[in-house]
Amino acid sequence: DGVVVSEKVESNNLDVKVTESELETEEKGVEEESTREPESNILDVSSDYPREKHISIQRHLADLEKLADLKEDEKKPCPLCPEEKFKACYSHKLHRHLQNLHWKVSVEFEGYRMCICHLPCRPVKPNLVGDQTFSKMGAHYHCIICSATITRRTDMIGHINRHVNKGETESRFITVPAPKSSHEVLKESATDVQVLPNYSTPQKTDSYFNPKMKLNRQLIFCALAVLAEERKPIECLDAFGATGIMGLQWAKHLRSAVKVTINDCNENSVTMIQENCHLNKMKVKLNTKEEDNDEAMGDGEENTDTIEVTKMDANVIMHLRSFDFIHLDPFGTSVNYLDSAFRNVRNLGIVSLTSTDISSLYAKAQHVALRHYGCNIVRTEYYKELAARIVIAAVTRAAARCNKGIEVLLAVALEHFVLVVVRVLRGPSPADDSAKKIRYLIHCQWCEERIFQKEGNMVEENPYQQLPCDCHGSMPGKTAVVLGPLWSGALFNTGFLRRMLFEAVQYGLDEVQPLLKTLVCEAECTTSKHFSTHSPYDESKQEECGVYIKTPNTSAESYLLHGKRKSDEVIRSAAKRQKSENTAEHPAFYYNIHRHSIKGMNMPKLNKFLNYLSEAGYRVSRTHFDPMGVRTNAPLAQFKTILMKYSTPTYAGGQAEAPVHLTEDIQAGEQVQATADVKAEDAEFPEDDKSAVAAAVFAKGYPTHCAAE
């Protein structure tokens, strides 16, 4: 019930009638409704601005200054502050006051600015101090859409965003030009999705859609397409649907090979998913309860174009039902859903998860990584691969708790996400084998050499002896840290990646093909010039996880149906395959060529450097984790020696060249055997004490600028 209160507000010598009505309080009780009915002869505002609005809502700073009627020789009060808070002053001071105290802290919406208001529009609760804090507590904003008055700026922004999410953009006081449609339609991979205007901010919208994750969605689609070739039809789950873009792409391209279920716990997202299904001419089978109460939409018949949409918690639906393919893409870490994912996933099925908590995985928030993953990590040059191995270790532990093992098919760590795709192997023996591959890593903080700890439970007297470098013996104090526990096995399955590349070509996914080619080279630890584009269905690639995969070139007799026990022949072939794969497994981690470059020297081109390492007898490849990274089984000392051998001086001069050749000589004497031509070059330069110290410091891992000091 409204109560009309007549007050005198001294602003431009104007009399204003203020109507205050207290309505419902939103959330924390910071929003109250109040309406104003200004008299017809009160405000003299520009003609393009409606008179019904509050005076604190303006388009431009000049409009706000017009209210003050600034004049150089006269003192004028602030139109948005009471006299006891801000006394009348000259124009230059009032201009700064309006700009800094009102305009800069305003909230923008549809071209309007809601400035902060200090007028007694909002009732203040009485306190012990009384009127002394009235001016501080009375600061508030007036909502341009409704009549609410809100004290905090962050609350005001959230209040406006809630109006936008609900489609409420028309004001009770002014006519705000509303957009033609509250939904925007985006297209990706021949799939249309409609999203809300603020779809790119996950904390402010129910239908989050990130266009930068297109590569991630294409990788997952290729993995699902490979699984669909093995057995049909497969039941797949998108546990966090949001807009439903991923599940729609699965159903639209794979059709009868998949039965797609899109789940989300948010009601608005479920509604958005249904609308997107109809937009793509897909039928919807709705299931919003944890029971089997299905409500069919469309014709009500299940066919190849039917998508099941559920409204449940992701843990609940994965506990209730079994799937062949599960994808987890929550906002942040996915460790809270791993136990449910492996509880009912079918044997030889695939679980893929996208982790976007890169601040903890990339060692920017190390305490969060310890809390979520139970891993101790530091920032290293190979931090992206470290993040992938952290996630796989968490996946392995969750699968082992359900008596299941895993085989890693794919691990990708890019700027915005870490994607891990694993195949599930049911049984305690695969679970034990997978759990044994979780180890700790010893990392030298001087030269960044690293090695996994040896298997066994016996305490080693000097764990520094496991490191190939001798930094502990030549440097003071403790030089290494123990990181982990981490996954120590392979990160890629070459056969699966080749079939993913084949599917990417089949479906015309051009963006993901270069990445898949890099992954295949990285899995085989070969350079791109040795990359072969032969058919992915070779005899050596038909078998994965101890079973034969059904492909166009294989007979039906070699394909084992789902759920059947493996024969003795398959078990023997699986043992041979695992033995051969262990010998050809790609090396763990990589070295950054810039991190180990020599000051004052020009490095060789990366591809040429890869050839130099290959000619020296080492396995070598580039890595997708780092564009300047080199994955090789060469020790760091030999890596530095070859890099130094083929580097050229930046400028000619004995002072620059002498320390470099001495460094090479010291490394040759202490760590590796140098070639004869390098030793001949070293003999040409006399040894200098200062240069020798600098070279020795560099050889032990100190930064080069310390050597000069």
TrEMBL record:
Its main location: nucleus. The lineage of its organism: Eukaryota, Metazoa, Chordata, Craniata, Vertebrata. InterPro entries: SAM-dependent_MTases_sf, Trm1, tRNA_met_Trm1_C, Znf_C2H2_type. Residues 143-163 form the C2H2-type domain. It is found in: Nucleus, Nucleolus. Residues 26-39 have a biased composition (Basic and acidic residues). This is tRNA (guanine(27)-N(2))-dimethyltransferase. One of its GO terms (biological process) is tRNA N2-guanine methylation. It catalyses: guanosine(27) in tRNA(Tyr) + 2 S-adenosyl-L-methionine = N(2)-dimethylguanosine(27) in tRNA(Tyr) + 2 S-adenosyl-L-homocysteine + 2 H(+). Residues 15-45 are annotated as: Disordered.
